[in-house]
Write a structure and sequence with these properties.
With 320 residues, this protein is of the alpha/beta class. The protein has a single domain, classed as Alpha/Beta hydrolase fold, catalytic domain (Rossmann fold, 3-Layer(aba) Sandwich), CATH 3.40.50.1820. Helix content is 36%, strand content 18%. Strands 1-2-4-3-5-6-7-8 form an 8-stranded mixed beta sheet, sandwiched between helices. It is globular. The protein starts with a helix and ends with a helix. The chain binds 2-acetamido-2-deoxy-beta-D-glucopyranose (3 copies).
């Protein structure tokens, strides 16, 4: 009897140890903080932007609805779905902070929200975009997000991080569609908003234009059949028809930046790029919706654009 107890305790503690993400050993979580104190330690409502334990260059903010979480925080059933919102080049986190946007959406739908903040300047003083292509010599933004999901799952065991609801607009849309190529199994549904420069499922071109060297760079393969398991929506403004910068601008940029930016110059409007990317995915057997928002240009703050991005994900949460 005694031996049995010792064995099972050892077994339990080995499971527990294995599931603590690096650096989170002392973390306050919803399972070690008394329910009546959860709000005082910010585990309910808006959790301040905090650095990831696995890479302090990357940080993230979290919003957890007060009402919904209380009932489910210690249960394994009925976990809250997690909406992950990826910022664009400007890295505005306003959506998470302004009371009437993502928090309101989260309260209404009954989901938690995670907003990662990826660093600029990783590859040099002019690097604003490396997070969009997922890799530099020192940072994999896709793996950084997976590590953050582990931290969130540990701190909020009532939040389901196994399959996320992923949205991003502009530079965020670039991140989202590339993340899908590599990790479709971690995404239940995704809204891809108006990416300007994209990766086609083209096996003859190197990343980030195509996917010929995904094995070497990311140690994985792209399987479009698995991508088709994800509920997908493309969103773009009807008037998102201007090319960012003139052709002279892109020539000048290439001269001064050289290979600092491994994305090719933008030579098509985002509306055309989104349609073309969707067509290549459709041809590869991947179904998706296309939502062209009437009257809107390239504006991530536009309420109709935001509604289009998040409403689709909210609907998907209700049907999963
Ligand atoms: C979750 O469980 C812990 C430990 O049993 C307990 O202290 C806490 O109050 C519970 N939280 C909720 C929200 O029920
Ligand atoms: C892609 O994934 C599907 C389903 O998981 C599998 O049946 C298929 O063999 C995979 N294709 C390749 C080329 O690995
Ligand atoms: C736009 O740029 C891409 C990538 O460099 C290239 O494959 C494509 O042919 C270009 N399209 C036009 C219309 O110049």
């Amino acid at each position: 009897m005694k031996l049995n107890i010792t064995l099972s305790l050892a077994f339990l503690s080995s499971i527990t140890l294995a599931s603590i993400p690096p650096g989170m050993e002392d973390a306050l979580t919803t399972s070690n903080v008394p329910a009546e104190y959860l709000e005082y330690v910010y585990l309910l409502g808006g959790f301040p932007t905090i650095q990831s334990r696995s890479d302090p260059r990357v940080s993230y903010g979290v919003y957890v609805p007060k009402d919904h979480y209380n009932e489910v925080s210690n249960s394994t059933q009925g976990k809250l779905p997690l909406l992950v919102n990826i910022h664009g080049t400007s890295r505005r986190m306003t959506a998470l902070q302004v009371a009437d946007q993502l928090p309101k959406f989260a309260d209404e739908i009954g989901c938690a929200v995670l907003a990662p903040l990826f660093p600029a300047g990783v590859k040099g003083p002019n690097d604003l975009s490396s997070f969009k292509t997922l890799h530099t010599a020192s940072l994999r933004s896709d793996l950084a997000l997976l590590d953050i999901l582990d931290e969130v799952a540990y701190r909020w065991p009532g939040v389901d991080t196994t399959q996320i609801y992923l949205s991003g607009f502009s530079g965020g849309g670039q991140f989202v569609h590339r993340f899908l190529y590599l990790h479709p199994d971690r995404v239940a549904a995704a809204s891809i908003g108006a990416p300007g420069r994209v990766t086609y499922p083209d096996p003859s071109k190197p990343w980030p234009q195509g996917i010929s060297d995904v094995g070497e760079i990311f140690d994985t393969t792209v399987n479009m059949t698995n991508l088709n398991e994800v509920s997908l929506q493309f969103v773009v403004g009807e008037k998102d028809t201007e090319i960012h910068g003139s052709s002279e601008f892109w020539e000048w940029l290439e001269e001064v930046m050289g290979s600092a930016d491994d994305l090719p110059p933008m030579n098509a409007s985002r509306l055309d790029t989104v349609k073309k990317l969707r067509d290549t995915w459709t041809a590869a057997g991947v179904d998706s919706l296309l939502n062209i928002v009437p009257g809107v240009a390239h504006d991530s703050e536009d309420p109709a654009v935001r509604q289009a991005l998040w409403e689709f994900l909210g609907d998907q949460m209700n049907t999963h």
